[in-house]
Design brief:
With 218 residues, this protein is mainly beta. Helices cover 6% and strands 44% of the residues. Strand 1 (32-38) and strand 2 form a beta hairpin.
């Protein structure tokens, strides 16, 4: 949760690119949600902007987040450099990692550890399923004292619907204070493949006003 909160707090603090590069503030694209993916040879990374568009970051060297794909927020400039095998070359003005996790199977973590502390899923442009990831903006209570919260997406919770997943939150007693927002993403590649082009995923969670659910197109 701390990583997710920091990611969201940094959204309003994205910096402009270095003016020595000859760009102006007006050239900078608004923040975008991407998947940071390594090339097969692990030499560098590229960005999946949506389900079809890829970006090559000319000023990002190596693998900033390791070899596992992660979701991130970026501000960027479209540039005329060689895009390699991507659709567009870009220069990154700011990049902030989003906490990215795998779903867990029902029973692999005890109910006590999963917790059932309330949170709210916020309807927002970053709350969506894209590129095989469920990304959620959420709100919950925190004292601001640095307690680490635990978020997990549980698959297999409904034996009649493999596309129903339950979002669990363990606040570890940090249940008093102000409402704060965070971001978290889950890799859905371990869910069964569906041939239904209109397949939906149902997310169930415990809110501050009781059990809630929402559906997203896969």
């Amino acid at each position: 949760l701390l990583v997710a909160l920091m990611a969201l707090f940094c959204v309003g603090n994205f910096s402009a690119c270095n003016t020595d590069d000859g760009y102006t503030i007006g050239d900078i694209y608004p923040m975008a949600l991407v998947t940071v993916k390594p090339y097969a040879d692990l030499s560098s990374c590229y960005f999946q902007l949506d389900n079809t568009t890829t970006l090559y970051p000319v000023n990002v060297k190596g693998l900033p987040y390791g070899t596992t794909p992660v979701r991130a927020l970026i501000e960027y400039l479209a540039v005329d450099d060689d895009p390699k095998d991507c659709d567009q070359a870009v220069r990154v003005a700011k990049m902030t990692e989003i906490l990215t996790k795998q779903p867990v199977a029902l029973g692999s973590i005890t109910q006590e550890d999963l917790g059932n502390d309330p949170l709210e899923i916020v309807k927002d442009w970053v709350t969506l399923v894209e590129d095989g990831f469920l990304t959620l903006r959420f709100s919950t209570v925190s004292s601001g004292m640095g307690v680490t919260h635990f978020l997990n997406l549980v698959k297999g919770a409904n034996p009649d619907n493999p596309y129903e997943v339950h979002l669990h939150h363990n606040a570890y007693g940090d249940v008093a204070g102000d409402m704060v927002d965070g971001l978290v993403a889950f890799d859905l590649s371990s869910l069964p493949q569906s041939s239904n082009p209109n397949q939906m995923i149902k997310v169930v969670w415990n809110s501050f006003s009781g059990k809630k659910s929402a559906e997203f197109p896969l």
